[in-house]
Amino acid sequence: MNPSATTTATAHRPLPSHVPVVVIGGGQAGLSVSWFLTDRDIDHVVLEAQTPMHAWSDTRWDNFTLVTPNWHCRLPGYHYADDDPDGFMTRDEVVTWLRGWLDTFRPPVHTHTRVTRLQHAADGGFTLTATTESGDTELTCDEVVIATGGYPIPVVPPFAPRLDPAVTQLHSEQYRNADQLADGAVLVVGSGQSGAQIAEDLHLAGRDVHLAIGSAPRVARFYRGRDCMTWLAEMGLYETPAREYPGGTAAREKTNHYVTGRDGGRDVDLRAFARDGMHLYGTLVDGRDTALQFAPTLTRALDQADAVYNSICADIDRHIESQGIVAGPAARYQPVWEPSTDPESLDLAAAGITTIVWAIGYRPDYRWVEASAFDGGGRPMQTRGVTEVDGLSFVGLPWMHTWGSGRFLGIERDARHIADTVTARLPRDELRIAAGE
What CATH number does residue 390 fall under? Predict the structure, then answer.
């Protein structure tokens, strides 16, 4: 590969009628598979509905920062190498870093090419229908790698359309900054990484914030002199295969721990927010017009999040002791605020709330894939991304192989495995054609 090559999207070129491998999705996961296939001279195309890496600039808010330390940022042939490995890149810095990676190779990306149908042939291979700027087209291939992201469809509750239309509703991926919102208080629903950080962003901007929290756990940013995620990596947690992970499937289904890399990194302490004026509620369960109902779960949710925080600290303590590491003193989080009651209702108008930000996650959508590769919840049935459907693989899914899957830390390993699998399964004549023999 030529490290000085400039990335060239091939949207202006017609799609071939047949290609050995099609990668669907031009984010970091799909392009990582392309990197390995390109390195091996395997003929393939990457079909991207918009533009490569668009999600980083288009779906993150202005003050977004990585939650994971910069040293986690590893893509094929391109690991973070600047002078702040323990810092946290901002959104714009991530975009610049990714652009630098794309400048090191020539992925055969067809932009503005959305796959609308994928059919698996009984005798092997696939037929794809794609919508391009010049119309619909079809192509066939032997292998397909789906890299469209684990959960592309934003979730809003079924009662959202019944709420007062005077209140603006948007999903977390549409949020950019406090100034874009109408004057008035804001309700953020969801306390995962996005919800907790957006609530903080609004709080720091001086907005009156109401936050409905769910079951998301939390983690210390720094503990005993190091970033907690650096400790966890050293302990092997990000490398543990999903089937061996403590807590089993239930642990893998939980929302990620909330914490932030903003301003050099710090804890996200919802109790401290409440002490300083933020209004907290339990799980939002229903609403109509301006009236909302909450489950009485606030106290339990705060206690459980803190219990996870302290249990992770205890795990790190045991690691430090077992390895004889010299570190700072052990400590435990002590609550700085307690709710006097678990509120069960809220009137949007009375509270002056003019905007609701939904941050309750995403759901899968593989309705365009005509193959028996999904469970009852619509999630791919796969082992390290490889399905039982001959020639069909996935990459970039959370927990695809380890906790590191779906993160920068695990993409290189996962993409290499998929590229190895795809290469081994390609017919010999396809390999010769790809290599120009």
Answer: 3.50.50.60
